[in-house]
Amino acid sequence: MRTDIVILAAGQGSRMKSGLPKVLHKIAGKPMLEHVILAAQKVQNSGTIHVVVGHGADQVKAALPQYPVNWVEQTQQLGTGHAVAQALPGIEGADAVLVAYGDVPLIKSSTLKLLMEACHGKDLALLTATMADPSGLGRIVRNQMGNIQAIVEHKDASLEQLAIHEVNTGIMALPGHRIGIWLNNLSDSNAQQEYYLTDTVAMAVAEGTTVVHAQPEHLTEVKGVNSRIQLAELEREYQQQQAEQFMGAGVTLMDPARVDFRGNITLGQDVTIDINVVLEGDVTIGNNVVIESGCVIRNASIGEGSTIKAHSVLDNVVVAGHCDIGPFARLRPGTELANHVRVGNFVEIKKSAIGEGSKVNHLTYVGDAEVGANVNVGAGTVTCNYDGVNKHKTVISDGAFIGTNSSLVAPVTIGEGATTAAGSTITQDVPNNELGVGRGRQRNINGWRRPVKQF
Ligand code: UD1
Ligand code: CA
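Above: inputs. Below: predicted complex with uridine-diphosphate-N-acetylglucosamine.
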């Protein structure tokens, strides 16, 4: 059975007051529309995903180029029925058509699947919800037998209908052999002068097509976003859901309300995360890792047993097991730490590999460097990697000891077991096991007196 999925995303979203099309506003670091496409992909069988775009169409398409969807343009927003009708040429031959909204981002694939199965290519299946405050939404009108007769939009509803609390979520599955006929018969003679997708329900009833319904597990799934306030509310609900999933899988969150997961995050068992931590992008964290408060970790993998101390920033890095980072460390793109590396406070590392057991403990910049195993980099060391035009490489071999406040002027190689004297400016390679001294020799001036204040 081929089910096509039509995602409506042409609306303006004027209440967002934004230059960005509404469906590109993000929940947990991903555009709302992307959440819906991902859910759709999970239930997609042989069918196509069609996305109806209008306002900011080019921007929307450009933001999600990686998805093999059929972009359909709706140049004028004449209603949800009109929007789905724009996709009709692509839908032809589908057994069922599932309609979802690009601004209802947390719909679950399991719920979409439920509707698809309820439709089964022959019935009209509606996702309804019962809400304490149904205002603004389409009401589900049933007869005395409890069978669905129609959906009446809020603006067209009678007083009696306004009292109904069962509402249309907008998400529905329609039989492929009827959808074209129904959409072509829609009229816009209603309060909003729009072509309502919801009018297909009364058409189905009139011709004897069975109308069935399902309800979502959580109301969060069917909440739409029309304003930044609603966006923030859904963000919180989504973060709470993710936090609960992680805790269920054996992660300790010191406060599940004060950690944000924005991306594809994998956390091992007995990971502990303190407050105000942000994990972004593709992040994989091994068992028993501790992340102290205030860390930002983006596109990173952190090996088992490592500790990331407070206020460290890790961006596009690979950290192996049992490392100890921070507090206040900054690991920039291209940093790779082997097992048992120690990086201390106010250390910045960029595009460098640090070998097993090495220590870079305080106030140091390591850039474009290859650091071996069991190296000790003293406080205040700087790899002078940039001559103002080009970047050059520093090699520090196994077992080397870099004295405090060394400037290593790249390109330069420090040999195995070599030492640099504190305060050296090292401009030449230091051979294995030798001491490199690159500083003025100290002299003491006998009889020198401090200046005295003149009047
Ligand atoms: C619609 C339903 C209503 C339901 C509500 C749930 C209709 C007529 N009404 O209301 O029963 O309770 O959703 O939120 O279907 N869109 C387009 N092109 C258009 C019009 C809309 O792409 O021409 C898109 C919007 O961007 C949005 C979605 O369709 O993603 C729903 O549109 P919206 O105007 O929010 O829905 P309502 O008409 O208020
Ligand atoms: Ca709406």
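The chain has a mean pLDDT of 97.
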